[in-house]
Amino acid sequence: MSVPSTRALRWTGSTALRSLLLFANFFLILLAYYLVKPASRSLFLQHSDSDYLPYVWTASGLLLLLLVPGYQRLLARYGRMRVVLGSCVGTAALLLVFRMLFHHANAAVAIGFYVLVDIFSVVLVEQFWSLTNSVYDSREGKRWYGLIASGGLIGGIAGGQASSALVRYTSLTTEDLISVAAMLVLLMMAMTGRLARAGVYREREVPDVPVKLDEPTLDFGVVLKSIRSSRYVALMALLVLVSQIVEPIVEYQFLHHVEAAYTDGEARTVFLSQFLSLQSGVALAVNLLLTPLIHRYGGVITGLLMQPLLLGLSSAFYLFHNSLRAATVMKISDRGLSYSVNRASKELLYVGADAQTIFKVKAWIDMVGYRVFKIVGNVAILLIVQWTTYQQSQAALTLVVIGLCCAWLWCVVMLRRIGGRAGKAAGRSAIAQTA
Fold first, then answer.
1. Per-residue pLDDT tens for 269-282?
2. Angle at which helices 53-78 and 370-387 pack, to 10 degrees?
3. Where are the beta strands (DSSP E) in 351-435?
């Protein structure tokens, strides 16, 4: 890659300007994703059945786990920026291939497309944050990450509204959204390359963290030893991973109701698009309006309590009002808070332990733990659905979610006893720096 010119470095020298450019880049990524996400769900329900979702999610999770070693080898051989740009080209090409395949669609095509969209979201978002983490030091990150993350939330709102409007008010169909998303991925790739040439992604040395997330250094033995030796770290890992078991169960119940309520494909796409836009809007509002207040006056622990508490209450409501509306509230309680106050609180919680230990555990959670525990959630769905009738399975799944929320709350309470004061101080310190 060519060395950026003095003029380019001067142009991007302002931290505020760099942050705005990264905001725009993340906006495009989530705009493309939320254009194609409702299409993938709607087309899957059109050509397959919601009962097969746990199998598809399991296949997606296993495929991601298998891709990690190959991805790490590509990074080692070609470098981060080339792999990022190549991933964008590959994603856009695959989207266009699936657009052609949908001219003669069947269940296999719909399943393959669903898996591609899931992987697309993980890879491009993780790559973006990997590049962004190379730009800022810890102090700058606390100040600017909120703004950059808001770009993704606004992109989610815009993507949901755009996909709904394109299907409702133009001649475009659900399948045509795939081509639009492919064009946006290429636009985002061009912007990422331009930012790299302008010197935005100027990597910093991090002397106190000798290991990088995207290098093949994860050792489960080391991670397990860290978890066993520190109750604080073990509770953190358990708290994060329990939430991953809950997610597929809530998603399964929500999509099951969507399938029953919307038999027309275009109407289903419009509903899912508007729902995803609403979900991102809730997350953005919580992120901007409530999260700073919660962290300032209640601390990190209070922020961590919000998602399991509200999800548990909404699940109890769903238990007695088995409907799409109740499932929608439950889904927003899960993902809307996960993308806002819960994510910010988890990041600040990592301040409570030594940097090297936390880095290794967090790397394992991000790359392996999330997928493994989602698979556990998928297996729970399959076992309950196979052993019970429909009404019994819905009640049983909801009781599992409520039970997991109780375990989640217990983890937070125990963390408060161990490191609550440190977490609260970290939260107030971070808010003070962003004020």
1. 999 999 999 999 99
2. 170
3. none
